[in-house]
TrEMBL record:
InterPro entries attached to this UniProt entry: AraC-bd, AraC_XylS_family_regulators, Homeodomain-like_sf, HTH_AraC, HTH_AraC-typ_CS, RmlC-like_jellyroll, RmlC_Cupin_sf
Lineage of the organism: Bacteria, Bacillati, Bacillota, Bacilli, Bacillales
Limits of the HTH araC/xylS-type domain: 232-330
Organism in which the protein naturally occurs: Cohnella thailandensis
Protein name, UniProt field: AraC family transcriptional regulator
Keywords: DNA-binding, Transcription, Transcription regulation
Biased composition (Basic and acidic residues): 1-22
Length: 334
């Protein structure tokens, strides 16, 4: 690709008026012009990462520009090359077919696809190029935290890329914007730079694959069992806030259901009532503290949601058949 880049002999301190993004005769600004400042910045990064059961290694990620009428002779690669046209006109010859290119076009040349590129004689062509290896890796049995879903999505995306016709199409999902996002991330070098770069590359692959995907190809994230989900949210909220008085109405508001519905959820999912669950959590913590400290029982009761410490005694005796003091003595705590 380098032979067709305009300004290859220009120094980095060249006159800004010659950059592709400069306005000429009132033309619109070119947002990708900033990528000309350090045109090989992203190419120099040794960016490689795992996505599902594939290894992605970025070979090139840059803005290329072509002089008027410039021809890049027929050639091929053993990897995948994604071509996006952000400005100008030209043509690409793939096999025996010639396709006209204009602003907003996208096409993919996969391994061993012979292609020849030609810039328009009057309107020079610019190209955003992502050239990468996609390497199958050994599958891992890791189903937690979404890894299985990621592997499925990666598999479907790579399948679409492998079967994508070598025919230019419109960049309908704005993959070109990801090149600019990646370059800005390189300029800023902010926290999370590697993760940002990985995400922008994956977005280019995904948005390119969507161009030729059928609506039925979209994957679905499994839906939650909402009763179980709300039960887990409610019990976690109780765990986190059990040291103060809690009401059914407060917890119901937090999990966005009515108090009556939350009570039904506790009966169906926990086989208990809301108040019994709260009491169970509090008594568990009180038992632990009775054995691990010598603090007065009244203080322990106040710290675990009993606004009236005297109320703890009948509740505790009903649950364990003894008073908190007897519980301590039973376990050898004086």
């Amino acid at each position: 690709m380098e032979r067709g880049k305009l300004g290859e002999s220009r120094g980095e301190g060249a006159d800004r008026r010659s950059e592709p993004g400069s306005r000429k005769n009132g033309s619109a600004p070119f947002p990708y012009a900033r990528m000309e400042r350090k045109r090989f910045a992203l190419d120099r990064l040794d960016l490689r990462f795992r996505w599902g059961n594939y290894g992605i290694r970025v070979l090139r990620c840059h803005l290329a520009s072509f002089e008027r009428g410039h021809v890049i002779a027929a050639h091929k690669h053993s990897e995948y090359e994604f071509h996006f046209i952000p400005r100008g006109k030209g043509a690409v010859i793939i096999g025996d077919h010639r396709f006209e290119l204009q602003e907003g076009a996208f096409y993919l040349t996969g391994p061993d696809v012979v292609h020849e590129q030609i810039s328009d004689p009057e309107d020079p062509m610019f190209e955003l190029c992502l050239h990468c290896e996609i390497i199958p890796l050994e599958a891992e049995d890791s189903r937690e935290w979404g890894d299985e879903l990621e592997a499925q999505e990666a598999e479907e995306c790579i399948r679409l890329i492998r079967t994508m016709p070598a025919v230019p199409a419109l960049d309908r999902y704005h993959a070109m914007q990801c090149f600019l996002d990646a370059y800005r991330a390189w300029e800023e070098q902010s926290v999370g730079f590697y993760t940002t770069m990985k995400q922008t590359v994956l977005q280019i692959l995904l948005r390119a694959a969507r161009v030729h995907a059928s609506p039925e190809a979209a994957g679905n994230i499994p839906e939650r069992d909402m009763k179980d989900h709300r039960f887990r949210l409610a019990t976690q909220y109780i765990e986190d806030n059990g040291a103060r008085p809690l009401t059914l109405e407060e917890v119901a508001e937090r999990v966005q259901v009515s108090p009556r519905q939350l009570q039904r959820i506790f009966r169906s999912e926990g086989e208990t009532t809301f108040s019994d669950w709260v009491e169970h959590i509090r008594l568990q913590r009180i038992c632990s503290e009775l054995l691990e400290s010598d603090r007065p029982i009244e203080e322990i009761a106040l710290d675990h949601g009993y606004a009236n410490p005297n109320y703890l005694y009948p509740v505790f005796k009903h649950k364990f058949g003894m008073t908190p003091s007897a519980y301590r003595r039973l376990h050898g705590v004086r």
